[in-house]
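Exercise 7. Predict the structure of Peptidoglycan/LPS O-acetylase OafA/YrhL from Nocardioides aromaticivorans.
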Amino acid sequence: MIRTYRPEFDGLRTVAVYLVVLFHSGLALATGGFVGVDLFFVLSGFLVSSVILAEVERTDSFALGRFYARRARRLLPAAVVVVVAVAGVFTVLWSVPARISLVGDARSALLYYSNWHFADAAGDYFAADSEKSPFLHFWSLSIEEQFYVFFPLLVLLLVVLKRVALLRWIVGALLVCSVAAQVYWAGVDVDRAYYGTDARLYQLLAGVLLALALQRRPQPTPRRVAVAAGWLSLLALLVLGSGLLDVSASWRGLGACAAAVVLLGALAQTEGAALNRVLGTRIPVFLGKISYGTYLWHWPVIVALTTVLDSGPLVIAVLATGVSTGLAALSYEVLEMPVRKAAVLDRLRWSSVVAGLAVSTLVAVVVAPGLLEQDRRPEVAAAAGPASGAPGGRASVPADIDWKKVVDDHGAVQSCTVDDVDACRDHRGAGTRVLLVGDSQAQMMVPMFRRLARDRDWDMSFNVLPGCTWQEELTNSKMGAEGSEDCRRAREGWYDDVLPQLDPDVVILLARPRDDVEEWGDVVSRRDGPREPLDRLTWETTSATLEKVSALVPHVLVVSRLVMPETFDPTDCLASASTLGQCSVPVPDGGTPVDGYVSAVAAEHPNVELLNLNPAFCEGAPWCLPVVDGQVVWRDDHHYTAAYVKARQRPVWRLLSRTGAFEGS
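Solution. The predicted structure, encoded as tokens:
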């Protein structure tokens, strides 16, 4: 166990933090650089438990208040300043729509549940850009803080019960459970495996077990063996941090944890050896001492740089390293060390903890939202659509747009399984029996179809889930584990078991096309099937589903590709533009491969029809304006706002009625 300051461990922090910086910069030589976080976890568990165990060994007690006070003074001031500064900077760089999601990100960062927040966002189909958040990196700090709360309480309990000897067994059992959780979630949901406290705790606990092992002072490892083990384990970490090994993030993390334990054990037993001296030199030690600040600053700096610069990874890496290190050094000297060395705070243990948490909460709830929700145009213009001569394109962008309402206007989700068919039924009418099946593009239509059903007394049902296309056998990995399972239940066997019970006169199938190989080739697959070419996959699943549905339903309407911005974010554009024409969208030429497949099936099945709804939503073709009659048209690059769709009910009905499927409605 380490009882005195050892500078080589600060040098090791330097290795960890710059592996992460290079990884986040996008350098090909550091595609595994996220193992720097794994090294941080093991090192934190080792050093913190060494301090706690030394106190227990020396005094036969443990001062919980002093420990929490030191942690609060060490971590909270810099974190609060970074969150406030980042919120202020991105108020200048990003538009209001782009900043809306950052409010929750900043709150979770300061209240230290960021890892669970981003794990949830990773499985949210409408949070696909969460990886761009300048607060994303707080996920690892949240896990550490959760550990800092839990582990000292466990030690204190065992001290009070005079059962400290049980600590190694409890830690060992928890480590095994955590490794099991990591392996399990890695096969079910990689995001859950990456962000979950239960699946990452083993790395911190591995450091604790190492400290416990060294505390017993076993027969020292032969020095030559320990020295060689140190160099080899450091080399292993660098190889794992490079792009040389093609292994999953989960196995890379397990390997990095093992290498870190060996490296720390070797360094602890070889004081004065060459590797210790290299890591303990002045520059690595200083960079290690400011590594917390470097980690706090590096990711928002990278996000800001990629916002204002169109540069390659090497330039971003150089600039991010310099800027984040400089800010960290300034923070260390001006803020962090003065707070940590303040003698008056030594006497105010619990008061300083409460004050620190109060300030953090105040910034999370009041200050950060106040900055991020300011309605001001960014200094960096957002990407826009092609300049157009659309009628009305010179009109000004409305000044009173409620951006949060627009971004959150998803529509409604409604689905069922064979065990609960009534969950699909919505409006019980005496007229035409209508069923809408689809994904998030169908979801944005649900409020309009509900009103149509009431107005025309339809018997209306829905099987609509975001990310879940209407083709029965297709699955979409962007949905996450929970979304994929919901989709499986809502599609697998559904047309055989549930569709006959609903007995619709008309089925409307609507989903975003997922037939572009570059975008969807590695994302869309056959459920529980082998990997196969996307064109063959979409043709086979489209034709098979239409064959099945058309045999059971008199009229099958498949909505063709809807006009969407696709290449830019329309709300971000509108928030930066002065005229509507700057964010208008051209009607694309031709259809998609899926449209062609549907037409081929329709040629052999008269009750199947490809339905073009674009004239209802884009009356100014060949250009579509982003605001029509005061309604914002698109909420993102592939979805209308549900409010706009609802406002277009009459022209949609005209197109539906022309199909002949609604005679008598």
